[in-house]
Amino acid sequence: MFMSRVKIFAALIAAASASPALAQEAEPAAAEAEESAVDAAIEFAKTLTGDATAALTSDKAEAEQLEDFQLVLAEGMALDVIGKFMIGENRKAMSDEQLARYNEIFPDYLTKLYAEQFKDIVGRPLEVLEAKELGARDVIVRTQFDRPEGSPIMVDWRVRQLRSGERKAIDIIVQGVSIMLVKREEFSSFIATNGVDALLDRLEEEAA
Question: How many CA atoms lie within 13 A of 163 on its CB side?
């Protein structure tokens, strides 16, 4: 597991330098700014986790809980950045109609995926293990959620400060698995075999 997590971090670093959607700016010069960015990212991860837990442990019906949870993620994640990264180079060949369809369905598709990832995290106390900068605007916050039985659930949060000044999560890596990276490869392979429209049909079906 340790080696797989190391590989995920190596892949994240490679993706940051190779993908336009994840391009970085110059490193901040001041150590104070670096420390502040790390602290802010840690606080962001704690707040996002708390809001997600509140949504999924309310006394509402399950369908309403999921809807509230998806709203939390839609607010806390840079869905436009993630969506562009996942579709990758295929975006250049897509028509305006296909892009509009993809952009409409992607938020529901992704937040539903994360709802499944979060089911074993809800209500567990978060412990921050470490946080470090990755490029100029990103911070990886490594956390764990203890369980009464079994090993802790490991979650890494990649938090970015956008040019607007807001902080958003651009990836949440649960138990060493980055949905951002896995789905980018999966989308590319699926489009190569079946085409863009077939992928859009599939996303709409899975998001429903």
Answer: 6
